[in-house]
Design the sequence.
């Protein structure tokens, strides 16, 4: 009989190795697509600079709170993480289209850990982008509360990213054509972003809209980012972290499960 | 290992109402180079995808290197290499990176991985392109890289799905050489699908002819060809009348083989056709019949294939002559 302990540790080695390999692939691809990185930074930065300036000069909240570029920055970082991580998950569709998915599916490795490695790779990419935006915002005059807060916000980015990349993987494993891709992007990205409180304060909203905002997982991410970076939040931070954590665990679990069922 | 490398038991796969693979029973021996020959849509790819655990059978079972494809898929995956029909490379990475990721997925330690990457790159002569992004590769180069990758983890059984599809003749010959080399030198059992007759003929130890999901014939290329009854001598004379006369004379002389007449030609089906030509010519010259041309047709796998799967010749009992005229017509079209 095989030694159970050694079989177990062997499985762990295989699992970690699989996760690392898939992560490495994402990193190699990321390294190769510098123009894409710059492109993906451009959209959030336009938002930040143009909307931020406009908010500064033309909006006054009913509650009297200030919405300036500093208010907007965590929202824009959250937006970048949302786009990047959803895209990272959904890119499984491209792998299916271009055939690489077969190479992964036929390898003697557990598919759940393939999905997890991919998720971590995509999240790393998203975190790099989020951090870059954070730094650019700082360079153009956004004042963060502390360095520690900035570091903590990277952790928040990880949680947000994991949640949405898991969702992306689940959807990509389910939707089998890239026609479905546009639909996903339109019907998920936009509502999630617009309902998240990235651009407005929750307390000013009518109650029907407030309910929707509370149902949006990104809301908790934006609030957590705003807490770590600016020192203010409309939802207690421990609730934000708990919700983000549960969301990430649920979607990664779902994504891993769906990916195991994925057809070529 | 004396058990077959691959063994299927009534392996069946249905897609909705279509039976893509219908109760297939084949055995591929250890070290064999086995071909699945059939037209597009015959079920070859479905069969190979089941054996490589990419899809599950609807019925029946199969063993690959001793492991059951449905009960022990990860055991199967450890022992096989697969080169799919379309490209499955990451085209944003370099050739070497593709190989490196593959080595990692198959758990090769660093030193071994390096060694194997160098080995397979040399085998497929892609050393100088190793650090180039795959996107810039030609179709043939991608194919070679895929084969290289399929070999990196030293599989016991290698599946090749249409390995030379759409490649130019030169590259095709190249890839045939690799496949032969692998099979002979590394003793890899190879199962390949193809719809190129010459590929099956040149490469394979044994061939299964597959059509509508069923095995129509299974033997060595030689035996399959011999089963058709031998060579065909085609003698063309000036008129149909003369041909008919020659036909009678040939039969009266009590010569071997069977003979048929069609227009101004006679077709003699016989073993050792080349040795029979002088005999036929002598009959003609003795009768004063002017022979315009003599043609010797050795049966090819095309003929075998047509006899088992061809539309005009689906049922048995068709002669070589029909096949040749069918072939000639097909060529003219």
Sequence:
């Amino acid at each position: 009989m095989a030694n159970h302990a050694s079989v177990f540790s062997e499985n762990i080695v295989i699992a970690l190795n699989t996760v690392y390999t898939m992560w490495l692939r994402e990193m190699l691809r990321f390294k190769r697509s510098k123009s894409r990185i710059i492109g993906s930074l451009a959209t959030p930065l336009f938002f930040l600079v143009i909307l931020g300036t406009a908010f500064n000069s033309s909006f006054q909240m009913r509650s009297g709170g200030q919405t300036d570029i500093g208010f907007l920055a965590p929202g824009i970082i959250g937006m970048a993480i949302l786009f990047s991580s959803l895209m990272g998950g959904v890119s499984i569709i491209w792998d299916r289209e271009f055939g690489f998915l077969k190479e992964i599916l036929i390898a003697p490795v557990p598919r759940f850990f393939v999905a997890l490695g991919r998720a971590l790779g995509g999240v790393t990419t998203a975190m790099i982008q989020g951090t870059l935006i954070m730094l650019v915002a700082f360079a153009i005059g956004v004042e963060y509360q502390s360095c520690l807060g900035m570091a903590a916000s990277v952790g928040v980015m990880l949680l947000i990213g994991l949640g949405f990349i898991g969702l992306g993987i689940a959807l990509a494993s389910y939707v089998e054509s890239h026609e479905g891709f546009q639909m996903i992007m339109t019907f998920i990205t936009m509502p999630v972003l617009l309902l998240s409180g990235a651009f407005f304060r929750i307390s000013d909203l009518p109650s029907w809209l407030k309910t929707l905002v509370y149902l949006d997982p990104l809301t908790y991410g934006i609030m957590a980012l705003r807490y770590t970076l600016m020192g203010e939040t409309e939802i207690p931070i421990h609730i934000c972290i708990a919700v983000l954590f549960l969301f990430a665990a649920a979607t990664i679990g779902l994504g891993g499960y769906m990916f195991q069922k994925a057809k070529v | 290992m004396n058990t077959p490398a691959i063994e299927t038991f009534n392996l069946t796969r249905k897609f909705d109402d279509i039976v893509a693979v219908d109760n297939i029973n084949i055995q591929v021996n250890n070290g064999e180079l086995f071909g699945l020959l059939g037209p597009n849509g015959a079920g070859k790819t479905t069969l190979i995808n089941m054996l490589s655990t990419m899809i599950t059978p609807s019925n029946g079972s199969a063993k690959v290197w001793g492991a059951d494809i449905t009960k022990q898929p990860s055991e199967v995956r450890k022992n096989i290499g697969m080169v799919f029909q379309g490209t499955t490379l990451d085209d944003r990475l370099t050739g070497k990176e593709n190989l490196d990721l593959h080595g990692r997925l198959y758990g090769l330690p660093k030193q071994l991985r390096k060694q194997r990457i160098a080995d397979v790159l040399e085998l497929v002569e892609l050393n100088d392109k190793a650090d180039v992004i795959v996107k810039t590769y030609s179709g043939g180069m991608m194919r070679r890289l895929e084969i290289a990758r399929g070999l990196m983890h030293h599989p016991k059984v290698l599946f090749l799905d249409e390995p030379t599809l759409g490649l130019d003749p030169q590259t095709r010959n190249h890839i045939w050489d690799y496949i032969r080399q692998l099979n002979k030198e590394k003793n890899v059992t190879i199962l390949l699908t193809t719809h190129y007759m010459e590929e099956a003929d040149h490469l394979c130890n044994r061939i299964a002819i597959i059509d509508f999901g069923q095995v129509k014939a299974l033997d060595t290329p030689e035996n399959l060809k011999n089963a058709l009854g031998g060579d065909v001598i085609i003698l063309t004379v000036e008129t149909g009348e003369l041909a008919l006369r020659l036909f009678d004379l040939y039969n009266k002389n009590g010569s071997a083989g069977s003979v048929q007449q069609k227009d101004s030609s006679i077709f003699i089906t016989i073993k050792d056709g080349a040795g029979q030509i002088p005999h036929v010519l002598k009959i003609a010259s003795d009768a004063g019949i002017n022979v315009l041309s003599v043609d010797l047709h050795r049966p090819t796998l095309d003929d075998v294939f047509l006899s088992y799967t061809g539309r005009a010749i689906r049922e048995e009992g068709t002669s070589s002559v029909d096949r040749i005229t069918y072939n000639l017509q097909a060529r003219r079209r």
In short: Residues 45 and 136 of chain A are 8 Å apart (CA to CA).
